[in-house]
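[job 4417] fold queue: 2 targets
>>> target A
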Amino acid sequence: ATANECGKSNPVRSKSKHYIDSPNNYIIGGRKAIPGEFPWQVAVKNFKTKYTFNFCGGVIWNSRYILTAAHCLLDCVDGKAKKPTRVQVCVGDYNLKSHDGENCANAVYWWTHEKYDVCSRKIKNDIGILKLKYPLYLPQLTDNGYGSTNIPCHPKHKPYHGMATISGWGRDNPNTKSSPDVLKALTVPIWTNRNCKRIWNVDESQICVGGDGVQSSCQGDSGGPLVYYDEKGRATVIGLTSYGPVGCLDKGVPTVFTRISYYLDWIYSITNSTKP
């Protein structure tokens, strides 16, 4: 798909295949992604100083803009929001400790939603946009597996049922600070917002998934994609990792994602994209 063909996947490469769920597949403790399996996935480094940074995920919106979580771009310091000194985005990455065709660029500007409050305990509007210094090369089919946008086309807050897939380089053991070198994936059940409201104070701008106490996203996965595959196997990125239970694993407590379709008008206004 080109950057303007919203919601369509790139042709599946010969070395790639759709993720088939297994009870043993998860980010914490589990399943490695296939190189090129998630072409919309990016790595986001938020530099606090020249050498220290926080790590997050993100999603390709088009060749110039990246979506991520707002809390990946702001810190609460003494009750006030503080921006990072520099933000770098890497696309086409798989193994973070080796060069495998990734393309990295600094962000020249970034926005967080105007109603997001990094110092509030009520986490809402957790979405941000990065503008890259140079446009990404997004051909229809790429050897390194990146280039697909796969974003909902219209602001329809339709309920998603069944399973969805999370990917990221986040912590794979909630009891340590270690993170995997390679991209990992997890397929999880989608909750209804009605059920999720019994646990979290969510609204239609959010999606809840997971909560089995065994598998979960964790620190480092923030801002990364939640992907829904339709009956034809077409992938759509429907959410961005926002927050979950302390320690990542808590049975009966789901992870909360920002629903991308809810913010399409805001995204279009920032990126000057043409609505399909």
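>>> target B
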Amino acid sequence: MSQYSDQLLALGAQYGIPLLKALAIFAVGWVVAKLVSLAVSKVLSKTDWDNRVATYVTGGKAKDLPVEEGVAKLIYWLIMLFVLVAVLQALGLTIITEPLNALLIKITSFLPQLLAAAALGFVAWLVASALRIVVRNLLTAFQLDQKVGESTGDVAISLSKTLADAVYYLVFLLFLPQILDALEMDGLAPVRDMVGQILGFLPKLLGAAAVFFIFYLVARIVQRLATNLLRTVGFDALPQKLGFAGPAEGGTSASVAAGYVVLTVLLAMGLVQAFNTLELAVVSELANELLQGLFNILVACVIFAAGLFLSQLAYRALSRDGRSPTLALVVRAAILIFTGAMALHRTNLAEEIVNLAFGALIVGLALAAGLAFGLGGREAAARAIERWQER
């Protein structure tokens, strides 16, 4: 009998005590997990930070999500995972506890990096929120939305909110490399490098925007000055002098159109300078070619306009009082053809075709004049030849 009791005591000491120890650990751990999760749920229900973060992440649908309950359950099961490992170790099941221990070691070793990244993210959020409020209040004080709405005709534009949001996300972008470095994850190296390249390109982008904005301001001032100056010197009457009809009622006058041309040219120059500031070789080269093409087209228009003016002037001078109307038409056509060819040549559009067509036209006119003179003056030429023979 004593032998059986000794065996039972040995079995109890071998299995009973570890089992009781495991049950005690489980009970205490369960109580702690419940208390901690309940405390977290109460704290989150008293604050609004979790709802703000969830609203930002879910796009405004956080009210339909039990945020406090979800966070509390996450903490509960995380604590219970540690409790489970302790229970299994108390039972001596090392085969199961070894992989779980490795997992928990990785989680606990990553917690400092995660907390550091979270702290940096919180600081970034504070700074970004403060700057967004300051920028929006300043722009609202300057009545930026009203001024933009009056100039564009769209009162619904909220440029101050857009710029404030841009500053908000820019601050997060500036903090992002430090947050990624705090995580110390090699897998995030490509993301960190990409963010670094974006931040390195950002000063060039801001410089290009500043250059284009300055050109825009200068272009608007020059446009108004050019429009007023041309209107003062009587430029609006130039189309009628060239033989064109005047602008329709409520239409754009010649001085206003010329002002828009000046504005377009200056904005194109500003765009080229902005691309040069970005130091993008391909885009800068393309922009320079487009600007050169625009300049050539503008010069071609000036040449052809001068041709129109000279042809009209010559036509009026030759056809005055009914004198030589045919000659006046020929001279006007010749001037228009010559200046038109010069304008097309200036645009660099199919230079060989333009030169060939112009040369063929000149040769054709010379041949026609020669034939007309020869056929019309046959009798005079015959008499001249007879006189030469008599001598």
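[job 4417] complete. Note on B: The two ends are 174 Å apart (CA to CA).
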